[in-house]
Design a protein that fits this description.
The protein has 189 residues and is α/β, with parallel strands linked by helices. The protein has four helices and eleven strands. GO terms for molecular function: dihydrofolate reductase activity; NADP binding.
């Protein structure tokens, strides 16, 4: 059975995921939403292994320096520009297929779940790749200015699951912003 690729993202109603290198609702912090992200991406299902987070260069640099690399996860950054890994990056690769190859070869004994955490073009590549995929989407129920967007989630390719273990089903609210967690699974398994 091939490995499930997971994507995790928070989106505005227009599928906006970023604005000027920050989350759209910046400087408002959604601490519980961030905790959900950390729990999902850092909790390994296999003792002695770590999850992998794959991100683009801009996503890496959008993470506050004090939080890089993301703790208890193997951090892989994609960049065609960087010739050497930026400080804190565990692995630097030029493209998504190289990242997946790295996970399945050199990191096979260490890696558990694979999480794509941004940006937009990497989500697109992950969503269109073959094999089993899951999208963990936080639907922010308020519109903010955005300049970066998640590709449409095609209902012909993905189905919304009624529930998923460890993902709260009830409406969330923090700092006057409501949101809900959704999990989509690719129909092709």
């Amino acid at each position: 059975m091939s490995r499930v690729l997971n994507g995790i993202v928070a989106v505005c109603p227009d599928l906006g995921i970023g604005n000027h290198g920050n989350l759209p609702w910046h400087p408002v912090r959604l601490s519980n939403e961030f905790k959900h992200f950390r729990t999902m991406t850092a909790t390994s299902s296999v003792t002695g292994k770590q999850n992998v987070v794959i991100m683009g260069r801009k996503t890496w640099f959008s993470i506050p320096e004090k939080n890089r690399p993301l703790n208890n996860r193997i951090n892989i950054v994609l960049s065609r520009q960087c010739k050497a890994p930026p400080a804190g990056v565990h692995h630097l690769v030029s493209d998504f297929s190289s990242a997946l190859r790295l996970v399945d070869t050199e990191l096979a004994d260490q890696a558990d779940q694979v999480w794509v955490i941004g940006g937009s073009s990497l989500y697109k590549e992950m969503m269109e790749s073959p094999g089993p995929r899951r999208l963990f989407v936080t639907r922010i129920l308020k519109q903010f200015d955005c300049d970066t967007f998640l590709p449409e989630i095609n209902p012909d390719k993905y189905r919304l699951l009624p529930k998923f273990p460890g993902v709260p089903e009830e409406l969330q609210e923090e700092n006057g912003i409501q949101y809900r967690f959704e999990v989509y699974e690719s129909k092709e398994q």
